[in-house]
Amino acid sequence: MKVKDLANSDLFTAITLPQGDREINGVYVGDLLSWVMGRAQSDNAWVTIMSNINILAVASLSDTSCIILAESVKLEEEVIKTAMDKEINILSTNMDIYNTAVYLSKVI
Amino acid sequence: MPDVLNFHFEVDGDDFKSAGHASFICKKNLRQLGISPEIIRRVSIAMYEGEINMVIHARGGSADVNVYEDCIEIILADKGPGIKNIKQAMQEGYSTATDNIRSLGFGAGMGLPNMKRYTDYMDIKSTVGEGTTITMKVNFE
Ligand SMILES: Nc1ncnc2c1ncn2[C@@H]1O[C@H](COP(=O)(O)OP(=O)(O)OP(=O)(O)O)[C@@H](O)[C@H]1O
Ligand SMILES: [Mg+2]
């Protein structure tokens, strides 16, 4: 499934979608950045509740296809702007992490 | 082994928000050279962990990325406090990060193990009170 398809579903909202055509090939869940860095696979969707600006470098360098912010976590304007500059897809959902993962396992 | 290309970066120790920028620019440069995504990913992860360590633990430093015919070499050098026990620092889960740093998602003690895992060669030279130099290589084959 493509990131933009997920963004179009009712349960998710796109915060940034500069590369909507990227494919989601799996999911990694985690908030500790160097675990994500070491374990997430290229083109995974990364589900987290972390919202500080450092998530952008992690998503970009580990090459995940999008960040999914669970629990309706909000981002500061500066983070959103930088995500656009770095061409990082960010989606938001009001589901918790567990339900986000369960949902993703059904649709991707 | 002749130098094909060198990228040099200064890593600011105060600027937490732009930490990772050198790795980001390096990744872009390597992409333009047409290097394979898997190699770029390994270099990016290893370099980012080293870069963020210099920001968190060593008040910044410098990063040099050398592209050779058969490998990419990353050299991270800082004049921070040094690492007293390298073997201990290399263990998964070992971290001296403060609560403040941990609240940002760092401090899992996985950075150095990631650097080891994603590179074909890693050497740490460190002197307490003087600084740390980490050399890593990712082979093309
Ligand atoms: N450049 C450095 N200068 C001084 N000490 C360092 C340096 N790099 C690492 N260390 C020491 O080694 C420890 C382990 O580093 P490592 O990157 O594995 O974990 P971390 O940075 O604490 O947490 P994480 O990387 O998971 O966010 C650090 O907590 C720190 O004490
Ligand atoms: Mg670290």
The amount of beta strand of chain B, in percent, is 25-35%
Number of domains in the coordinates of chain A? 1
Number of helices of chain B: 5
CATH class of chain A: Alpha Beta
Which protein chains make the most extensive interface, counting residues with beta carbons within 8 Å of the other chain's beta carbons? A-B, 22 and 29 residues
Q: Output the CATH topology of chain B.
A: Heat Shock Protein 90
Let me know the number of strands of chain A: 5
Tally of contiguous helical segments of chain A: 5
| CATH first level of chain B | Alpha Beta
CATH superfamily of chain B: Histidine kinase-like ATPase, C-terminal domain
- What's the oligomerization state? heterodimer
Shape of chain B: globular
Major sheet size, sense and barrel closure of chain A = 5 strands, mixed
Mean pLDDT of chain B: 96
What spatial order of strands do you see in the largest sheet of chain B?
Answer: 1-2-3-5-4
Shape of chain A: globular
The unreliable regions of chain B are none
Number of E-type strands of chain B:
5
Structural class call of chain B reads alpha+beta
What does the model show?
The complex is a heterodimer of chains A (108) and B (141). Helices cover 39% and strands 19% of the residues of chain A. With 108 residues, chain A is an alpha/beta fold. A five-stranded mixed β-sheet of chain A has the order 1-5-4-3-2. In chain A, strand 2, helix 2 and strand 3 form a beta-alpha-beta unit. Chain A is globular, with a radius of gyration of 12 Å. Chain A starts with a helix and ends with a helix. The model of chain A has no long low-confidence stretch (mean pLDDT 98). Helices cover 35% and strands 28% of the residues of chain B. Chain B has a five-stranded antiparallel β-sheet, covered by helices on one side. In chain B, a hairpin with a 3-residue loop joins strand 2 and strand 3. Chains A and B meet through helix 2 and helix 3 of A and helix 1, helix 2 and helix 5 of B. The complex binds adenosine-5'-triphosphate (ATP) and magnesium ion.
